[in-house]
Structures are given as C-alpha cells and as structure tokens.
Specification:
Elements: H1 3-11, H2 17-22, E1 27-28, H3 34-39, H4 52-55, H5 57-70, E2 74-76, H6 84-87, H7 100-118, E3 121-126, H8 130-133, H9 138-154, E4 159-165, H10 168-179, E5 185-189, H11 202-212, E6 216-220, H12 225-242, E7 247-251, H13 282-295, E8 299-300, H14 308-317, H15 319-322, H16 345-348, H17 353-358, H18 395-405
Parallel strand pairs: 1-8, 2-3, 3-4, 4-5, 5-6, 6-7, 7-8
Helix pairs in contact: 5-7, 5-14, 7-9, 9-10, 10-11, 11-12, 12-13, 13-14
Keywords: Metal-binding, Methyltransferase, Transferase, Zinc
Protein name: Betaine--homocysteine S-methyltransferase 1-like isoform X2
Pathway: Amino-acid biosynthesis; L-methionine biosynthesis via de novo pathway; L-methionine from L-homocysteine (BhmT route): step 1/1
Length: about 400
Amino acid sequence: MSNQAKKVKMDEKPKGILERLNAGEIIVGDGGFVFALEKRGYVKAGPWTPEATVENPEAVRQLHREFLRAGADVMQTFTFYASDDKLQNRGNMDPKKMTGYNVNNEACLIAREVANEGGALVAGGVSQTPTYLSGKGKEFTQKEFQKQMHVFMENKVDFLIAEYFEHVEEAEWATEVCKATGLPVATTLCIGPDGDLHGVSTGECAVRLVKAGADIVGINCHFDPDITLAAVRKMKTALDAAGLKAHLMTQPLAYHTPDVNKQGFIDLPEFPFALEPRVCTRWEIQAYAREAYNLGVRFIGGCCGFEPYHIRAVCEELAPERGFLPPGSEKHAPWGDGLRLHTKPWVRARARQTYWKNLKPSSGRPFSASLSKPDCWGVTAGDQELIQKTSNTTDDELKTLFSTKG
C-alpha cells in the first residue's frame, strides 16, 4: 500500500469502538506504559503509578506517538493505578503537591492530543485498588473508580477500559461504575486459565463480567501470549454456553512465562528488574496476533513489555485483514526483507521468512537457567498482610518480609 493510502487511513475520523467491532474490524491496542517508562526513567518501580503525566508529560506523549505510529487504534490514558488511594499508598505521593485529578486529567489531555494526530480512539482506564485489597467493601471501592469517571467524562473519552483485576468481584464493581457513564466498556482480568485468586473459574469470570455490563471482555498482563489465549479460549467457551454475546480482547505480557503459577509474572524471582531474557521477539508476537485472530479475538494489543515494535508486529501480521500497514512499517520490510541491503552476505541470507520463523533464540547467558521457581506466598485479598496504608514501609517491616522469603 502506498504512503498516501496509509495517510488517508490514518486521517479518517474514527468510528466508535463498538461500531467498529460489530462491523468485524480488528482493533489494535497499544502496549505497556509503566514498564516502558520505568526503563526510560520516568516511572518508579514498586508503586508503578503515572505521575509522569504531570512531571514529564513529553515522555508520555512521545510513547503514545510511538504506539500510534506502530499502528495502535487506541490511545489508552496513562491512568493505570491512578486512583487516589493508590497514588497515596505506602508513602508514594504527596497529595498536597499533585492531586489524583491532575494526574488523570493530564493523562486524558495527552492521549486525546496524540489520538487526534492519527484518528485513534481514546480509552479512559481504571485498575485494581488498595481499597479493595484492604477489604473496605463495594461502596468505598466504587467511590475510587467514580472519581476517575468524573475526569474521563469531562474529557469526553471514547470508551472505558477496566483492566488488571485479580478478583472478578472487584472487576464487576468497576464495570458497574464504568457502565453507568453510558460509554462502551471493556473489562479485562489479569488471570490465567485457572481462574481468579478467589477461585472463580476463568469461564465464570467472563460470564459475570458480561452480566455486569461489559461489552468487551478478556485478559491483560501477568501472563504471556500463549497462557493468555488459553484463558480467553475458556472465556469464549463459557460465554457461548451461557448464550451471552461480547467481543473478546487480549493484552498479554511480551515476556515468556511458562513457569509461572496462578499469580503470574509478579511471582517470578526476576520480577521486575531482570525480565529482559524473557522478551518475546517480534516474530513471536506475529504468531500471537494470528492465533488471537483465529480464536475470534478482535481487540488485540499488549501490556507490560510490549514496546511499539511489538504492536507494529501485530499490525503487520494482520495487514491482509486490515487492508493497510502502519507508518512504522515504512522502515521495516516484512520478515527481515530489508536485510537484503546489508553489506555482509551471511546477513543478507537471513532476508527470508523461513529463517526467522524457525529461529530458536538463545539467551546468550552462560549456564543460564531455562525456568524459574516462582514465589508462592498465596497472599490475596482478605489476608491481613494486604491491608494497605498511606505511610511508607518501614525497615522493620521489610526485615520481616526478608525473613519470610528466606
């Protein structure tokens, strides 16, 4: 497709998310913001909260632009963990200097600015809360979501995403608040094929989310593409059996996690600072995109570890169905074909699909362990250890954790 044809596609006024999905279109989501911006020096690992929207807005804006250029149809507001209770949890942020409203509002303004540059949709996002983990109940938990809804409605986002929930109960509460706005709602859980952390099966989770009002359901984060698609397959089966209709969505990790337990990659010893050896190649992400499409998923994106080149890989794999390539593909020939321009003959010999499709990448690390033994603390909502507080974790509290971990 010509550059001009690509430009026309990018400049079209976007239709609504449900209008597009109902018409059978493929929606490509964006990738992971907290991990990408942490690596760039704008997000603090631990709280993973999005103060960067206020402190370093240009960094957030640039990452949005890179995902847009890679082909993303959705600019999700950088409001992951942006509820007031999370922003102030464990001594993370001084609310006198920066309010939750400011963080959420700036995220909306940045996302809309970039979305308008390429005809993308803006999705306001909410995620799990310390209030729920502390056992404060439905009323208080939903109040945290409602604060963010006010900002999203002021900024006229196109639809809402409730994501990263380990417990379907909290996801239902978030979905109800989102649905009350009248906007389309996508709800995703960070669970695998074994269900949520309170023992609700993956299929039943999907049924409950649709009954709570979700128009789109699926899985995001915590697991790699293979495990995520296995979980979504269970969701699809359960929805079909219940006679319920909903669009399917996947936004997995870009890290291989065959050795995780029910809690996902946060239990891996490498989390979060030594995950690089697990990064999926662009070709593996192309395979994920194809498998997701064949499963019937039509909202396909990524979460932690997904960089713009991964999203470009999704777009390139699904270009025959979508009918166009993203601007980011102007510098990337399919299956390494650009390597035919290389000066070295042995590198030119790699300019073919069969080479990259059959490659088994090595870690390059002498005596590298192939798999890890996950931490299995078994702590989830309802445990005393998960009661949250606004003060910072003390040295004595850390010593207790160190002795428990061994």
